[in-house]
Amino acid sequence: MKKEIMGNTVKIKQHYETAKKTGILNISNRQMMEIPANMKQLSEILRTLDLSQNSFKVLPDEIGIYSILKQLNLSHNKLQGLPETIGNLVKLEILNASFNQLKSLPESLSNLSHLKQVNLSENQLTEFPLMFCGLKHLDALDLSKNKLTCVPDGVVGLHVIELNLNQNQISAISDKMADCPRLKTLRLEENCLQLNAIPSRIFKESKISNITVEGNLFENKKIADIDGYEVYMERYTAVKKKMF
């Protein structure tokens, strides 16, 4: 075990030296439970930080000092929450905190105006994270495999192009989702939706051109009975034609 720890320490030091030159630090899969103290020396250099596949239960407040960070990978840990200081990472573009045990998220995430991609799949979130609404550069938000039960009215402020809500417990969707200004792809597979819980406005009045609903509480072919389905299919077909 001592040899393994020493070997890990040597490898991490090598990664630090590389990070000083490249701005990229990958210390994934190191069985770490705490961020190494000497990582602070990279606070003004790091643009990419990969802490995935470790055993972090808590992310320390000091994560907020990495102010020029653009990519942060926290996936495959044991995190139950994120610190408010994560909102200090104002240049962050990609956040991956999938495969953790997150039950809630800090409101300070709303400060991250440069976010483009957020992956929070495989967590334990029970409420839709409305702090991502208003982030105008956010293209993709993955909330699949959580414990969400509804999509509230506040979703109207979401600017994503793709929203993945597969494998939750959603039984209610606000018709305000039709007003999401850039939403093109909506994934709702394997939830708890009745056919009448899907607002017709999503089909008639939105920009959504790809909606997937397999594995809910109705036969998939019944979706064609929803008022506005033909209008939706016109958008779907038009997009397909542009692809070929």
UniProtKB/TrEMBL annotation:
The keyword rRNA-binding does not apply. It comes from the Eukaryota. PANTHER family: LEUCINE-RICH REPEAT-CONTAINING PROTEIN (PTHR48051:SF54), PTHR48051. Keywords: Leucine-rich repeat, Repeat. GO terms for cellular component: cytoplasm. This is Leucine-rich repeat-containing protein 57. Signal peptide: none annotated. InterPro entries: Leu-rich_rpt (IPR001611), Leu-rich_rpt_typical-subtyp (IPR003591), LRR_dom_sf (IPR032675), LRR_domain-containing (IPR050216). It comes from Cotesia glomerata (Lepidopteran parasitic wasp). Pfam families: LRR_8.
